[in-house]
Backbone:
């Protein structure tokens, strides 16, 4: 047998249905917020990612040389491709430009629980609107998406990288030392951050103030201890979030996200059920376009780890929707086979999901198969009933069976179909 | 600027909406036929594809070595991965197993019109039901999918590889020479096929009979000239297709599909508007599982070239559905900003796609933006109107403006939303 490559997954019908349901929920919410989908290639020139994340990322990517000798890489994330697309082709679109995307990403590392070599991200970027309202819109969208997923337990923590950056600057830290310190603070490894801050010439008091800052969490009032522009900005973001009805957010000045291109607010959503790999969403405002050869444009966005949300939902015992056809049509005899196909076609043409015996099986085996594929009803096409213009319809859950007029079959089952396909209903 | 890799594409919002509409139409039809989605990784071990298509395919694939020294390839098609998945994990599922899939495929060749290095396929496989009904089901599904796409001009041509194979066998052609001859006949290069048939010891009469066979097209009656098992089988397939109401199909015994693993019926759908690259769908019954280490299982399926259908629709001037938010909320003054956000949130929570000013723009600039993103209505939130419990709603197509009670706003716009979102309606 040929195995699938290590660290990748196949998804069977049941798993795919649950995944598509979540994806469609995400899409619906994003579109309600006025975001529109874009799609970029599975692979990019490797330099796109080294420009954004530094040369070390090459080690963590599926990178290979194409026949023209250029370094190509399977995309490790989707923000860089989205911003490359923006710089190349979308700068003339009306702003703010609100886009979302969903797709596979790849990282070349030892596969482990909750981390796959091929994984899926759902993300959004709001480009060209440098206001607190934009950041609130992005956080509000992420919050609405996690809420619609059905996840019960999660925390949304919002910080502002500017609070910390200005504190480091005021303490006299040189620009070139900031990134290293932020990376250690991001991971909360204070025993490594402290020596770096000392090397940067910070006083003991300033160092403790920084540590205290990154441990500051709570309601918006905790910002009062750290006056300044960044705090004011964050306060406005929280005010808009309140107008949006998003109240399950807290300030966490320890959200640092150790990457250079973040410029303002930063936020994370955790699902505690996931343990060490608990982060399901990360985002913030950033500046990347100028790295890719464009003008500087304010952007804010996030990415949701789609697989992690799926795993968190599973751990919470989330029950996914039932799928499966409404009707399974069974000809009782060989002479009824053509009739059975016509009936199946009529149902399908009327929008009813229907299946039909393709194996020339006995009635009993057909019932068993209909049950195994989760069909709601069996439609039994018999000579005698058809002669009287009827077919038998059996409810496969209750076992109840009744005769239905042939010309009322579609309307009868259409009611069942619209009941079952709640996906298109008015739910949130 | 960093360019996207050669032969790949980015899809902007408008193009993505048209593509997702088509994809969703395809999904809906497949699910109505009782097919369920599966998904496999973007890359596979290269041997999966060389086993199926021969070693030459390596040259046409994006292949690279992983860190473990194994040959990995970006998938050039989706049938082999689907059957690998079946052999590995799905052999215990109830049969027939009906699956569909949609995703990116890759081929490493000079990019040209209608052929991309990254392209999209939508396919379906019906596994484990060795009956003419199964073949009819697969052809019926392909026909229903092309019909729902809105394509006006296309031909569905169905043949049976067995008719030709048995004629070659009867003419004394050795088994090992069959594949080479079929490949030439598939491409209708008779000047190359003839010498091969002569080398294989065929008489002039048999050769001309073969040529005549591959030029045979028309209604099912043309099969009368070629009696035998394969013709009888094909006749039954056409009978079931008729019961399904699929009458726009014709027999074409020249559909050969020059690959060894096809075993019975073979079919193609062409869109003449596409010129040389006119084939939008190809399929047939085949046997692959035993190549991948499983038991031999009858399978029948097809793949639709998603990009080609999109291009054919464009050439026919197909007008895609309008998307865009229902409402764009504009605060008239700074004091109304929070109200505007609350109104946008209320609409979104009620299932209405809504956007809101994030740029603190003037009324005039907001109208311009609302228009540019295709919003249907502007909701104007002014101090005086709000004091009287109303907002102004302006139809951005007609320019008409009226006052709507604040507490009736959602129900008023919900009616517009359900009108616009015909995607979830009862259409075919």
Residues:
């Amino acid at each position: 047998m040929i195995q699938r490559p290590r660290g990748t997954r196949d998804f069977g019908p049941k798993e795919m249905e649950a995944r598509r349901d979540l994806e469609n929920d995400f899409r619906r919410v994003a579109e309600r917020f006025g975001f529109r989908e874009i799609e970029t290639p599975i692979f990019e020139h490797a330099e796109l990612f080294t420009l954004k994340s530094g040369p070390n990322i090459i080690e963590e990517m599926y990178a290979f040389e194409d026949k023209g000798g250029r370094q190509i890489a399977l995309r490790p994330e989707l923000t860089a491709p989205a911003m490359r697309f923006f710089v190349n082709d979308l700068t003339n679109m009306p702003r703010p430009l609100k886009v979302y995307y969903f797709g596979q990403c790849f990282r070349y590392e030892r596969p482990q629980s909750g981390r796959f070599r091929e994984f899926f991200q759902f993300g959004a970027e709001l480009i060209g609107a440098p206001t607190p309202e934009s950041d609130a819109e992005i956080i509000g969208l992420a919050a609405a998406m996690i809420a619609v997923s059905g996840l019960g337990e999660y925390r949304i923590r919002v910080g502002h990288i500017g609070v910390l950056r200005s504190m480091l600057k005021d303490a006299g830290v040189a620009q070139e030392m900031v990134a290293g310190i932020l990376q250690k603070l991001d991971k909360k490894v204070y025993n490594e951050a402290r020596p770096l801050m000392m090397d940067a010439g910070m006083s003991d008091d300033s160092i403790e103030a920084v540590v205290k800052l990154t441990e500051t969490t709570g309601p918006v009032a905790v910002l009062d201890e750290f006056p300044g522009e960044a705090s004011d900005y964050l306060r406005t973001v929280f005010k808009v979030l309140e107008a949006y009805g998003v109240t399950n957010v807290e300030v966490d000045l320890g959200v640092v996200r150790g990457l250079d291109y973040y410029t303002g607010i930063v936020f994370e959503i955790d699902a505690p059920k996931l343990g060490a790999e608990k982060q399901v969403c990360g985002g913030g405002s950033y500046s990347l376009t100028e790295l890719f050869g464009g003008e500087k444009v304010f952007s804010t966005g996030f990415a949701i780890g789609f697989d992690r949300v799926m795993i968190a939902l599973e751990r919470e015992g989330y029950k996914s929707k039932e799928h499966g056809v409404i009707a399974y049509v069974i000809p009782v005899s060989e002479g009824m086979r053509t009739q059975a196909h016509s009936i199946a076609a009529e149902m399908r043409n009327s929008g009813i999901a229907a299946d039909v015996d393709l194996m020339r099986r006995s009635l009993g085996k057909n019932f068993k198969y209909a049950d195994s594929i989760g069909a709601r009803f069996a439609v039994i096409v018999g000579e005698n009933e058809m002669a009287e213009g009827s077919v038998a319809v059996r409810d496969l859950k209750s076992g109840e069976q009744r005769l239905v007029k042939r010309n009322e079959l579609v309307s009868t089952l259409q009611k069942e179909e619209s009941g079952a396909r709640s996906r298109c209903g008015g739910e949130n």
